[in-house]
């Protein structure tokens, strides 16, 4: 039996994934969480072989969770299930320690195959991601400026690009507005931009949102 946990801040999404995985007789959902603190609590009380993890969560992001699991040498295998486009985030997640990446817009039944593949110790790659990895090996193309951003800086960029105010971002990330303002300043400096409007344009042009 493959023990699976779901970590996504949207209960409706978790239910959809849970209903999909219920079709597989060899998969059992052992816990759910809507944030990193909840995930930590659930992991203490239930077994987990494969974690289905969203990237965009309140407080610590999915990439932060990947880093934490990696630092503790956790045996849990992680499949990132996100709405963000594969060409911008899949490779980043794999480098951070994920064993696979699936888009929420993909065929739900593919999740069952992904969970089984990861449980068996293999990477789960869609054809699109496999092609990107192949191209990154064969070609030395210059990296986009946003690839130098830290996870918090990237989160700040994405939330600004979707029209959120600094106070709203601070509340969602459980940070102080002053800290978020510092992240914003760093993003502007690293990307060579001047204001939120330019940040939004950059995010759209680079298909980050």
Automatic annotation (TrEMBL):
This entry's Gene Ontology molecular function terms read: DNA binding
Q: Which key words tag this protein in UniProt? A: DNA-binding, Phosphoprotein, Transcription, Transcription regulation, Two-component regulatory system
Q: Name one Pfam family in it.
A: GerE
The HTH luxR-type domain covers which part of the protein? 142-207
Q: Where is the Response regulatory domain?
A: 3-119
The cross-references to PROSITE patterns, in alphabetical order and at most eight, read: HTH_LUXR_2, RESPONSE_REGULATORY
Tell me where the transmembrane regions lie. Answer: none
Q: Which GO terms describe its biological process?
A: phosphorelay signal transduction system; regulation of DNA-templated transcription
| UniProt modified residues of type 4-aspartylphosphate | 54
Q: Entry's InterPro entries?
A: CheY-like_superfamily, NreC/VraR/RcsB-like_REC, Sig_transdc_resp-reg_C-effctor, Sig_transdc_resp-reg_receiver, Tscrpt_reg_LuxR_C, WalR-like
State the CDD domains in the record.
LuxR_C_like (cd06170), REC_NarL-like (cd17535)
This one is known as: Two component transcriptional regulator, LuxR family
Lineage of source species: Bacteria, Pseudomonadati, Pseudomonadota, Betaproteobacteria, Burkholderiales
């Amino acid at each position: 039996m493959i023990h699976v946990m779901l970590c996504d801040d949207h209960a409706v999404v978790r239910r959809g994934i849970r209903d999909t995985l219920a079709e597989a007789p060899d998969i059992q959902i052992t816990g759910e969480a809507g944030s990193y603190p909840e995930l930590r609590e659930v992991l203490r009380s239930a077994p987990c072989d494969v974690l289905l993890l969203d990237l965009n969560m309140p407080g610590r992001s999915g990439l932060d969770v990947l880093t934490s699991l990696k630092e503790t040498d956790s045996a849990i295998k992680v499949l990132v299930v996100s709405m963000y486009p594969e060409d911008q985030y899949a490779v980043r997640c794999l480098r951070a320690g994920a064993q696979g990446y699936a888009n929420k817009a993909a065929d739900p039944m593919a999740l069952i195959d992904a969970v089984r593949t990861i449980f068996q110790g293999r990477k789960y790659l869609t054809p699109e991601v496999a092609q990107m990895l192949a191209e990154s090996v064969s070609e030395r193309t210059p990296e986009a400026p946003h690839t130098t951003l830290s996870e918090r800086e990237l989160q700040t960029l994405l939330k600004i690009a979707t029209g959120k105010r600094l106070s709203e971002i601070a509340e969602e990330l459980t940070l102080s507005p002053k800290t978020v303002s510092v992240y914003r300043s760093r993003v502007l400096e690293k990307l060579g931009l001047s204001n939120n409007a330019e940040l939004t344009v950059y995010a759209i042009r680079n298909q980050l949102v």
